[in-house]
């Protein structure tokens, strides 16, 4: 009995020391890679685009988990060193969006064998790169020994209230304004004056959410863009309303 007690005491002390040492090691949470902030307005050159692509390659895209940029005995997928000078842009795009369309073999072995990891489609979940991010990664891959052919002008710029109506036709907007019955309750001049500013962001907010701050119950029904307008209708009306100058003394 005494021998058993000594053994149990030794085990307890050993486990206690093991737990104590383990708790002294700094703990780091296992988190997904931080999403790279992509600001299209900051991309002026192809070099800027490739630089963003490099960050995504090692970050959100998770490409470096399997690919290397130099010879590696531990790489699970093809080495991409100098690949930009060997592959066309179309081939790179198809390779990352339809990776199983090609059979990649590791020729460092004889006979060649398949790479151990299958590449996921990077523009679908869980990686889910958007088109801007995809183009930037392609730019980075092209920069590995080749010429970047992706132009910064191909990067989509986000729409904002300040630019939304500028593609509309004011003349058509006036016709839509009348045809859709807006004139039953509104004048373009009054809408602009009510927005409080002569900018399209305010007018857009007024049209999309006309009863923001209204506490009356029940609220009146607004027959507008949210029910009948098409995007073109909306852009045209925006252009018309934004281009209408308020009457003198309007409030």
Give a verbal description of the structure:
There is one protein chain. With 251 residues, the chain is mainly alpha-helical. The chain has 2 domains: 40-154, Orthogonal Bundle (Cytochrome Bc1 Complex, Chain D, domain 2); 164-242. The protein is built from 8 helices and 2 strands; from the N terminus they run αααββααααα. Strand 1 (105-106) and strand 2 form a beta hairpin. The termini are far apart. Mean pLDDT is 76; it is low at 160-165 and 246-251.
Lay out the secondary structure.
Layout: H1 2-24, H2 46-58, H3 89-97, E1 105-106, E2 113-114, H4 131-142, H5 170-179, H6 188-195, H7 200-208, H8 231-242
Antiparallel strand pairs: 1-2
Helix pairs in contact: 2-4, 5-8, 6-7
Strand adjacency order, main sheet: 1-2
Gyration radius, to the nearest Å?
30 Å
H/E order of the elements? HHHEEHHHHH
Proper CATH architecture of the largest domain: Orthogonal Bundle
Main pleated-sheet profile: 2 strands, antiparallel
Please count the helical segments. 8
């Amino acid at each position: 009995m005494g021998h058993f007690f000594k053994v149990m005491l030794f085990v307890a002390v050993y486990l206690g020391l093991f737990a104590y040492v383990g708790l002294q090691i700094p703990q780091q949470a296992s988190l997904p890679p931080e999403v790279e902030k992509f600001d299209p307005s900051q991309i002026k050159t192809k070099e800027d685009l490739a630089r963003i692509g490099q960050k995504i390659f090692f970050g959100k895209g998770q490409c470096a988990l399997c690919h290397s940029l130099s010879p590696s005995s531990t790489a699970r997928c093809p080495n991409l060193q100098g690949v930009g000078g060997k592959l066309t842009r179309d081939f790179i795009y198809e390779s990352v969006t339809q990776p199983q369309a090609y059979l990649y073999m590791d020729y460092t072995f004889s006979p060649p064998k398949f790479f151990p990891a299958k590449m996921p489609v990077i523009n679908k979940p869980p990686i889910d790169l958007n088109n801007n991010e995809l183009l930037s990664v392609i730019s980075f891959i092209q920069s590995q020994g080749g010429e970047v052919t992706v132009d910064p002008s191909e990067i989509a710029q986000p729409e904002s209230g300040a630019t939304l109506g500028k593609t509309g036709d004011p003349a058509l907007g006036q016709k839509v304004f009348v045809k859709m019955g807006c004139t039953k309750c509104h004048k373009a001049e009054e809408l602009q004056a009510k927005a409080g500013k002569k900018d399209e962001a305010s007018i857009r907010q007024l049209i999309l959410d006309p009863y923001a701050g209204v506490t009356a119950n029940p609220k009146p029904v607004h027959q507008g863009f949210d029910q009948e307008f098409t995007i073109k209708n909306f852009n045209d009306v925006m252009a018309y309303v934004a281009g209408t100058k308020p009457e003198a003394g309007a409030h």
